[in-house]
């Protein structure tokens, strides 16, 4: 179920609708939280895939069923979970790439427009990092 936040539906993922794009610090903090969540998910999936593979190999202890060994059958089940873990690692890298590109491209523009490092100038809606 989605909760509401001031009448707006919540996506449930890191508060993207709660102001991640309101200023530079919020955007960079959101990127870091997203990276952390994706990295933690990748670790969890990777560990689970390894444990599932090991346990499923022991289920029939080498018994061949329908021309498939226990090793092959265990791999058939655990491999998609391991691939999901790898996909989350890639997603985490893309989030960090976006953060780095933001810093390389937009922060110089903000500074050229009058953004001063540690001051709070609300004219452009961005705050100091």
Shape: rod-shaped
The largest pleated sheet is described as: 2 strands, antiparallel
Parts with pLDDT < 50 across at least 5 consecutive residues: 118-124
Q: Between the first and last Cα atoms, what is the distance in angstroms?
A: 35 Å
Query: Helix share of residues?
Result: 55-70%
Total helical elements: 2
SSE order: EEHH
| Cα-based radius of gyration, to the nearest Å | 22 Å
Overall average residue pLDDT: 79
Number of strands: 2
Strand content: under 5%
Strand order of the largest sheet: 1-2
Structure class: mainly alpha
Summarize the structure.
The chain is mainly α and 129 residues long.
Blueprint (SSEs and pairs):
Blueprint (H helix, E strand, L loop, with lengths): L3 E2 L2 E2 L14 H36 L10 H43 L17
Antiparallel strand pairs: 1-2
Write structural notes for this entry.
This protein has 129 residues and is mainly alpha-helical. The protein has a domain at 40-113. Helix content is 61%, strand content 3%. It has helices at 24-59, 70-112, and strands at residues 4-5, 8-9. Strands 1-2 form a two-stranded antiparallel sheet. The protein is rod-shaped, with a radius of gyration of 22 Å. The protein starts with a strand and ends in a 17-residue tail after the last helix. Mean pLDDT is 79; it is low at 118-124.
């Amino acid at each position: 179920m989605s909760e509401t936040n001031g009448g707006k539906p919540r996506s449930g993922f890191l508060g993207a609708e709660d102001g991640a794009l309101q200023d530079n610090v919020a955007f960079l903090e959101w990127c870091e939280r997203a990276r952390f969540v994706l990295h933690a998910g990748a670790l969890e999936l990777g560990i689970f895939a390894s444990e599932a593979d090991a346990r499923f190999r022991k289920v029939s202890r080498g018994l061949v069923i329908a021309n498939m060994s226990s090793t092959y059958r265990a791999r058939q089940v655990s491999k998609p979970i391991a691939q999901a873990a790898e996909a989350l690692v890639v997603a985490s890298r893309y989030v960090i790439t976006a953060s780095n590109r933001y810093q390389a491209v937009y922060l110089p523009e903000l500074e050229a427009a009058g953004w001063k490092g540690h001051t709070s100038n609300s004219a452009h809606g961005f705050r100091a990092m």
